[in-house]
């Protein structure tokens, strides 16, 4: 009789355990990796965010309160600089191994950012694609341990773009700028040397101090610029007419003298009468 009771007890425990195992086998979640971008140059750093995603948990508190995982990457191409916890989470690391959990021990039931991993592209890295993945994932629903799945992301290592030469230069449409700083040239200009030059509409500015552009008798039409280099000054607008004004004044003076002489002659003539 006692033997029969022991057998029944063992069978009951096995039935309970099999029921628990069957229920927990339906629980699942995923850790997804989302980089801020997918292409970087050697020496650059970038962040990869780790999200709890696709949470389907019926056991325990029906959510995930923490997990363990491992970041896997090519150490010849990438260096793991740091791993920091997102808001509401805490994390501890050992190399690529991660242990993360919620600060309040509450479970998460929807997609949530948990951890941010910062990587650096090694200077000795080969150009091309390299992969970061997350593996060996186990989560907890407080009452149960649940196996999770992970994703991977591909990072492209590209050539570093060589910076242009010169200071604060902005050249467009086939320009041929001269030397100097703070130059802004547009529409096929060919400025000379100097500082603080601003040339527009096919203008040509010379070098040195107090140089302007004259046409004929210092006359200039519209869209003409008179640049004074050396004093960091620039005058724009229509240049005043000059050169013929002296001759006009002489002619006017002669006419006034003649008119005055005629008036004086007539006055004396009428006075005698």
In summary, what is this structure?
The chain has helices at 2-24, 245-272; strands at residues 28-35, 39-41, 45-56, 66-73, 78-85, 89-94, 97-102, 112-121, 128-140, 145-147, 149-150, 152-158, 170-171, 184-185, 198-199, 225-228, 233-236. It is of the alpha+beta class. It folds into two domains: 25-158, Sandwich (Immunoglobulin-like), CATH 2.60.40.680; 167-238, no CATH class.
SSE topology sketch:
Blueprint: H1 2-24, E1 28-35, E2 39-41, E3 45-56, E4 66-73, E5 78-85, E6 89-94, E7 97-102, E8 112-121, E9 128-140, E10 145-147, E11 149-150, E12 152-158, E13 170-171, E14 184-185, E15 198-199, E16 225-228, E17 233-236, H2 245-272
Parallel strand pairs: 1-11, 2-12, 13-14, 14-15
Antiparallel strand pairs: 1-3, 3-8, 4-7, 4-9, 5-8, 6-7, 9-10, 9-12, 16-17
Written overview of the protein:
This protein is α+β, with helices and mostly antiparallel strands. It folds into 2 domains: 25-158, Sandwich (Immunoglobulin-like); 167-238, no CATH class. The chain is built from 2 helices and 17 strands. Strands 2, 4, 6, 7, 9, 10 and 12 form a 7-stranded mixed β-sheet that branches. Residues 165-243 have low confidence and may be disordered.
Keywords:
273 residues; alpha+beta; Immunoglobulin-like; 2 domains; 5-stranded mixed sheet; 2 helices; 19% helix; 37% strand; rod-shaped
Tell me the CATH architecture of the largest domain: Sandwich
The number of domains is 2
Task: Tally the helices.
Answer: 2
**Strand composition percent:** 35-45%
Q: So what's the overall shape?
A: rod-shaped
Distance between the termini: 174 Å
- CATH topology of the largest domain, what is it called? Immunoglobulin-like
The residue-averaged pLDDT reads 73
Helix and strand string, N-terminal first?
HEEEEEEEEEEEEEEEEEH
Percent range of helical residues: 10-25%
Structural class: alpha+beta
């Amino acid at each position: 009789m006692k033997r029969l009771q022991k057998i029944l007890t063992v069978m009951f425990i096995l039935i309970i355990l099999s029921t628990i195992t069957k229920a927990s086998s339906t629980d699942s979640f995923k850790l997804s990796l989302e980089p801020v971008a997918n292409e970087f140059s050697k020496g650059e750093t970038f962040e990869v965010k780790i999200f709890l995603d696709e949470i389907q948990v019926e056991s325990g508190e029906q959510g995930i309160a923490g997990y363990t995982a491992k970041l896997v990457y090519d150490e010849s191409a990438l260096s793991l600089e740091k791993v920091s916890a997102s808001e509401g989470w805490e994390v501890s690391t050992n190399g690529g191994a991660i242990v993360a959990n919620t600060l309040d021990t509450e479970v998460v039931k929807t997609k949530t950012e948990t951890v941010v991993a910062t990587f650096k592209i090694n200077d000795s890295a080969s150009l091309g694609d390299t992969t970061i993945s997350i593996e060996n994932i186990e989560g907890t629903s407080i009452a149960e341990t649940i196996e999770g799945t992970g994703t991977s992301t591909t990072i492209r290592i590209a050539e570093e773009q060589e910076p242009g030469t010169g200071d604060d230069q902005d050249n467009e449409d086939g320009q041929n700028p001269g030397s100097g700083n703070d130059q802004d040239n547009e529409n096929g200009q060919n400025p000379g040397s100097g500082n603080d030059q601003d040339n527009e509409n096919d203008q040509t500015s010379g070098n040195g101090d107090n140089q302007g552009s004259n046409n004929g008798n210092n006359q200039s039409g519209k869209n003409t610029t008179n640049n004074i280099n050396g004093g960091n000054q620039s005058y724009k607008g229509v240049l005043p007419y000059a050169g013929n004004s002296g001759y006009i004044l002489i002619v006017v003076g002669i006419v006034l003298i003649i008119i005055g002489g005629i008036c004086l002659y007539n006055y004396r003539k009428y006075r005698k009468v």
